[in-house]
Design goal:
Layout (H helix, E strand, L loop, with lengths): L4 E6 L4 H13 L4 E5 L7 H7 L3 H5 L2 E3 L2 H5 L4 E5 L10 E3 H11 L6 E5 L8 H4 L4 E4 L11 H23 L12 H17 L8 H14 L4 H18 L1
Parallel strand pairs: 1-2, 1-6, 2-3, 4-6, 4-7, 5-7
Helix pairs in contact: 1-2, 1-7, 5-7, 8-10
Bound molecules: S-adenosyl-L-homocysteine.
Amino acid sequence: MFTNVRIVLVHPTHPGNIGAVARAMKTMGFSQLFLVKPKLFPNPHATERAAHAADILLNATVVSEFLPAIQDCGLVIGASARARDVPWTVLSARDAAQKIAQESAVIPNIALVFGNEQNGLSNEELRHCHFQVEIPANPEYSSLNLAAAVQVMCYEMRVAYLNSLAHENSGPEKKHPPATTADLEYFYQHLEKVLFDIGFLKSTRSNKIMQRLRCLFNRTRLDRREMKILRGILTTIEESKV
Ligand code: SAH
């Protein structure tokens, strides 16, 4: 999972943050860390904060300039909390994560780039990014700690990836065609009749309750097989009363 998605830290200052980034990555299933001219690396503070993710630090690629870290990438997204004068396309964290999860199936290498603790990404660095991503934080203080920002993005990518798997594997259950409006109308009529028969509905409140029940069942997007089961239950109730 995500072996072709790399996290790039541009000029990180605090080795502790680099370690915390490695930990954030590993907990979410990422392993490719690129460091552009880190101030102090390798460093015991980084190893300490990485905890059981020290392997990510050992395998990290260290480069002295930004471009070599992204030159083989087909999608580059720069993380920044700051609005720019230059009109970049800004994606929300969730949309960017979804884009990466989708495109990682077809694009050989993808980079998610983070700026340094003091100054963030420069306009020049952002110019090489296809998109900017912004974590929708408190507008009065929107600057997350570097490792926290990496954690949020890696979490969002993991969730997007797991969702895409869930859709793929939604399996035979979902292959049943959806119940049509006509099917639903028969079902609601049947339900209403049975609820009257068993004395649950009394004429005065019945419309409102039926409306709520419609709302409830419509929300579930019943398929035909589920509809049949429900109709079967209603018929059994009717028969059991005879
Ligand atoms: N003081 C810097 C921010 C440093 S935070 C500035 O003004 O830009 C370190 C890095 O974490 C940022 O460069 C960015 O890549 C990431 N980051 C922090 N908060 C973020 C947010 N709300 N949205 C997207 N990225 C964020």
